[in-house]
Amino acid sequence: MPAPATRPGRESKEAVVAAFRRRALLAAASRVFGRKGFEPATMDEIATEAGVAKGTIYLYYPSKRAIYEATFASSLAEITAVTDAGVHAAPTPRAAIAAFVEARVRYFQEHPDAFRLYVTEVSRLVADRGPRRGACRMALDGHTRSLEAVFAAAVGRGEMRGVDPAAAAHAVFDITRGLVARRLLTCAESDAARDVAFLVELIWTGLAPGPHREGPTA
In 3-state terms, what secondary structure has residue 212? Predict the structure, then answer.
């Protein structure tokens, strides 16, 4: 008897299971690579972390490098999606900054291994002159694209001082990364909401329009 056909627009059971298994493997790999880095980590450790046989990993990823790169790409895509959702929903540029900072602080507090993986990979790629460096830079630029668009519109409406939207968005990105690193380094001893509020106030003080500040740049 032939297997029932999959309804249009619905994934097959096999596809759903494969997607679930990939997510589980990437989550386990993120924890292992986050703790140990790429070189010391082994496929055996990833398999143990995921609760599967090592051969199962090779059904989805042909090498340690392949699962490492997939883990890094998945983490970048996830934090970008979380950040963009908050920024797009924000009613004002200041609220967009708050959404950006809060989303990233919350995400990396919940996924500290992803932050360690992120820092390690970006540091490694600084010295890399190959194509992966360019691809990584494009992915990182995607983290600030939604905030840059909000800033560009706000500058045009006179709701922000006349700054370069891209430079301002990257500055917020860099400052936020510093806050995340400090909170992880100190085991989040300070209150997250207070840290975010202070940082947003500091950033907005430099970007808010005022009678003594210049208008939008040409």
Answer: coil
